[in-house]
Amino acid sequence: MTDIQHVSRPFVPPYLLERIASGGSQRLRECARHTLLADRQFRAREGAAHLPQGSSARGQVVRYIYSAGQRQELPGRLVRREGDEAESGDAAIDEAYHGLGATYRYFWEKHQRHSIDDRGMALQATVHFGRDYENAFWDGTQMVFGDGDGELFNRFTIALDIIAHELTHGVIQHEADLVYAHQAGALNESLSDVFGSLVKQYRLGQRVEEADWLIGAGLFTERVAGRALRSMADPGSAYDDPLLGRDPQPGHMRDFVETEDDNGGVHINSGIPNRAFHRLAMALGGHAWDVAGPLWYATLLDERLGRESDFTAFAELTLDNAGQRYGQGSREWTATRDAWRDVGVAVR
Amino acid sequence: MNAGTECQPPPLGISSRLSLRREGGIAHFPGLAQPRLVCCDRLGEAQRERLWQLLAEAARCAAAPMATDAVDRRRFHLAIEDAEGRCQWSVELDEQQMPGALLRLWRDHKPLSRG
Ligand SMILES: [Zn+2]
Question: Which residue intervals define the domain Protealysin N-terminal propeptide in the entry (chain A) (predicted)?
Answer without folding.
Answer: 11-36
